[in-house]
Amino acid sequence: MNPLLSLLQDGKFRSGKSLGESLGVTRASIWKQLSKLEVETGLRLERVRGRGYRLSDPISLLAPPLLSEHFGGIGWGCYFFERLASTNDKARDLLQAGSRPPFVVTGEQQVSGRGRRGRSWLSPYGENLYFSLAWSLDEGARQLPGLSLSVGLAVLEALRELGMPNAGLKWPNDVLVGERKIAGILTEAFGDLADRCTVIIGIGINVNMMHGSDELTQPWTSARLELGHLVDRNQVAISLARKLSSYLAVHCHCGFAALRHEWEDKSLWQGKDAAISSSGRHVVGRVLGVDDAGALRLLVDGAERRYSGGELSLRLIQ
């Protein structure tokens, strides 16, 4: 955790003198550090003569020692980075360097965050949760079907635990509140898919984001917008880890089939008309649910069809 930002994260004014005394540096050094932080993080600072400095908007910084303690309690390692390309890419690098799963990679900011189908994932400093779990699958590809849907259940339950009972699931990898996206999932498998392999489960949750950008191409929301107050990102990460541990245990021992009906009960588009698209082709039908492998079941012209694959896009018919 950046010590200077730690002092300022509550959004209250603090003088250069008090900041310098807390950190054992001069006021001139504080001014230089703050100017550098603005450039590196994109955070906005206010400077008022006689009052000092404050963040224009309070933030919730991650606390690596706290996260390491909680993740360690369920047998997971923890790697924290102030700034990184993406948590999934870093998890892959750590695996290649010899780190053994399970472990979590998280950080304050991603500069090349990405979602499904090569889309970028907006990752401003200190606002959202950027979380990747490296997880071993002892039975390889046989345990992959429906995995992202099982993870979606864990993300959803973590959000509901925060106080968002209206959050629900959208096939295959999104969590929505109403029609607005609040979280997404990206899974990537490595190793011998015929035997033991490792999957990196990347999760992005909009926690405290208040302002979007042109990068966002669909309606979105955040926990802060829904709840009306700043949310502790450490609480979100800890709750998510606990739910993930539980749902992954069920998935790995029993497969997605054991969670299928729960997923359907929490799907926001169950029974609704939707269009599924791939490579410029569109099919319209009614969402019947999912099968035991996590494939979408769609009623098209009176017959059931099933769809699976990472390049598919599903849109609700209004």
Can you characterise this structure?
The protein folds into 3 domains: 3-55, Arc Repressor Mutant, subunit A (Orthogonal Bundle); 64-264, BirA Bifunctional Protein, domain 2, CATH 3.30.930.10; 269-316, SH3 type barrels. It contains 9 helices and 14 strands. It has helices at 3-8, 16-23, 27-41, 64-73, 87-96, 147-162, 223-227, 233-254, 260-265, and strands at 45-48, 52-55, 77-84, 103-110, 129-137, 167-170, 174-177, 180-191, 197-205, 273-278, 281-290, 296-300, 303-307, 313-316. The strands form 3 sheets. The protein has a 7-stranded mixed beta sheet, sandwiched between helices. A 5-stranded antiparallel beta sheet has the order 13-12-11-10-14. Strands 1-2 form a two-stranded antiparallel sheet. It is globular, with a radius of gyration of 21 Å. The model has no long low-confidence stretch (mean pLDDT 92).
* Name of the CATH class of the largest domain: Alpha Beta
SSE order: HHHEEHEHEEHEEEEHHHEEEEE
User: What structural category do the secondary elements indicate?
Assistant: alpha+beta
Q: What proportion of the residues is helical, as a percent range?
A: 25-40%
Largest sheet: 7 strands, mixed
- Helix segment tally: 9
Distance between the termini: 45 Å
- Overall tally of structural domains: 3
Principal-axis shape equals globular
